[in-house]
Write a structure and sequence with these properties.
Layout: H1 15-18, H2 27-38, E1 45-53, E2 60-67, E3 76-79, H3 93-96, E4 102-105, H4 122-140, E5 145-150, H5 152-163, E6 168-174, H6 190-199, H7 206-210, H8 215-222, H9 224-228, H10 238-247, H11 253-260, H12 272-279, E7 286-291, H13 300-307, E8 313-318, H14 325-328, H15 330-340
Parallel strand pairs: 3-4, 3-5, 5-6, 6-7, 7-8
Antiparallel strand pairs: 1-2, 2-4
Helix pairs in contact: 2-10, 4-5, 8-10
Amino acid sequence: MVNSTEIISVDQPYRSKSYFRWNSHSKDLLNQSETILLSNVKVPFDTFYITIGKCVGDNDEIWTLSANTDCKNTPIVLIHGFAAALGFWLQNLDHLAENHPVYAIDLLGFGKSSRPEFADDAEEIESQFCDSIEKWRKAMQIEKMILLGHSFGGFLSTSYAMKYEQNIEHLILADPWGFTEKPDLSDRPYWQRSVIKVFGKVPPLGILRVAGPWGQWLIEKMRRDIIRKYENIVDDPKVVATYIHQCNTDNPTGEHAFKRLLCGGPWAKNPMLDRFKENFPTEMPVTFLYGAKSWMNNTYGESIKESRPNSYTHIEHIENAGHHVYADNAEDFNQSVMMACKILKSNGNEPRNKQ
């Protein structure tokens, strides 16, 4: 197998095509920026579309990366977070593919995958995402997998694991979103409540599309934190900004679906904590990998661990890492994932509730 991408520069030839339109989305530039990012991956890989047919739309396709597929160990499947895509796993692919097949996908409505219109109901949207992952799994002929989800991808991975538990050997959640309920905001300052109220009414990334040709400039200025995570790997950091921008200026159906899952702010309408305690399979191993410096609430992991005393539940706080734990401290994150991959449901006799 050889890598299916080649290095091409991200000059700006697309300006003459797309900058006449206010929305500066360019499929060519999205392809180019992803190609340059993935050119830094050393392990041989392929990228391709998997057609899953009628799911959310009439003929949905999921953009997929695969590596080390000849390996007989349980494959690792990577599910990215909100406003992201498979290129965000750049610092993890080489290490994770040393001993396992690795697959990464762009969720429907994000990245280079199809952009179908999701339902209006939060429960149905959640089910649609899960069913799309299941149709992809079947199309890929993956029998069992280790499912690793970050943030919003962690929320969806948990939902998938409860709906299709027979397909999961180990669930790994990297700083997952959507577990805790919306807090009481009555004591918050008025300006905070106003900002939260506005957040609940507008598309989270609508400003990128409103800004048109200045959208990438906004990312370069406002999300330097993400761009810096890849500066030691990618020669031109603007490529990262281009990738983020182009992933989120196409028809934002995934973003709109995510917004319908929200409860008047950055909290889930149907939070996962109680659902996890009541419905999560007791025999399934689960690992929580939090960024020690993350802004996310990570106290619920201990509560989940206490609720399943006879099940394998491991909680780890990755030092020198924030919410994007997989990129902030990729070395420690990758090692922790590899340790988790040694604990499989099919083993049946691994130590319980590892400290």
